[in-house]
């Protein structure tokens, strides 16, 4: 069995930088499990993509709970002009190391029609304010879940104490 991703999830894109206005061709993996867009550090260094520090370093974890070995993400890019076929948009990437592809796009980047094996891109998916709002909402929801789970645990412990049968 081939462990590589299906080829319809690997696209060729061109990334345009001030230092390279003709565009840099790059293989892009569209990752259905990614929650944001990533660029490999080696690719960023090779093409002198200027990193911008993030406010606080972020640990990234895989779907099975493993923290990335590359350590916390400390930098992002400015929005970069990216084209895939006739589609164009500005995308900001988190910079990390050890990726198998130079660029990874999260699936929310595109509107997908899986049955046709085609990707249709929406022009408005990358507005920073929308992304920040979505992240804030997700963080708040996670906090509510943690609170509910901790309350549930306390209630279960109290129930055990209250309803503990007496043995004679």
Name a few traits of the molecule.
single chain, Cathepsin D, subunit A, domain 1, 24% helix, globular, two-stranded antiparallel ribbon, Retrotransposon-derived protein PEG10, 2 helices, Peptidase_aspartic_dom_sf
Note down, in words, how this protein is organized.
The protein has 168 residues and is of the alpha+beta class. It has a domain at 9-121: Cathepsin D, subunit A, domain 1. It has helices spanning 41-46, 128-162; strands at 10-17, 20-31, 38-40, 52-58, 73-76, 80-84, 87-91, 94-96, 103-106, 110-113, 118-121. The strands form two sheets. A nine-stranded mixed sheet has the order 4-5-8-3-9-2-1-6-7. Strands 10-11 form a two-stranded antiparallel sheet. Mean pLDDT is 73; it is low at 111-117, 123-130 and 151-168. This is Retrotransposon-derived protein PEG10.
Ranges where pLDDT stays below 50 over 5 or more residues in a row are: 111-117, 123-130, 151-168
Distance between the termini: 62 Å
Q: In percent terms, what proportion of residues is strand?
A: 35-45%
CATH architecture of one domain: Beta Barrel
The count of strands amounts to 11
Shape: globular
Tally the helices.
2
Radius of gyration: 21 Å
- Helical percentage: 10-25%
CATH topology call of one domain:
Cathepsin D, subunit A, domain 1
Report mean pLDDT, rounded to a whole number. Answer: 73
CATH superfamily of one domain: Acid Proteases
Provide the succession of SSEs.
EEEHEEEEEEEEH
Largest sheet, spatial ordering of strands: 4-5-8-3-9-2-1-6-7
The helix-and-strand class reads: alpha+beta
Main beta sheet strand tally, sense and closure: 9 strands, mixed
User: For the record, what CATH class of one domain applies?
Assistant: Mainly Beta
């Amino acid at each position: 069995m081939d462990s590589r991703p299906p080829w319809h999830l690997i696209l060729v894109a061109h990334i345009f930088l001030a230092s390279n206005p003709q565009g840099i061709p790059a293989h892009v993996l569209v990752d259905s499990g990614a929650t944001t867009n990533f660029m490999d550090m080696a690719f960023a260094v090779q093409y002198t993509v200027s990193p911008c520090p993030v406010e606080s370093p972020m640990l990234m974890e895989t779907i099975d709970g493993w923290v990335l070995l590359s350590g916390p993400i400390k930098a992002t890019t400015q929005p970069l002009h990216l084209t895939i076929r006739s589609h164009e948009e500005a995308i900001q990437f988190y910079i990390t190391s050890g990726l198998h592809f130079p660029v990874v796009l999260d699936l929310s980047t595109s509107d997908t029609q899986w049955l046709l094996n085609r990707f249709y891109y929406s022009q408005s998916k990358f507005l920073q304010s929308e992304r920040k709002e979505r992240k804030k909402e997700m963080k708040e929801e996670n906090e509510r879940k943690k609170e509910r789970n901790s309350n549930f645990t306390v209630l279960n412990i109290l129930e055990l104490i209250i309803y503990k049968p007496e043995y004679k």
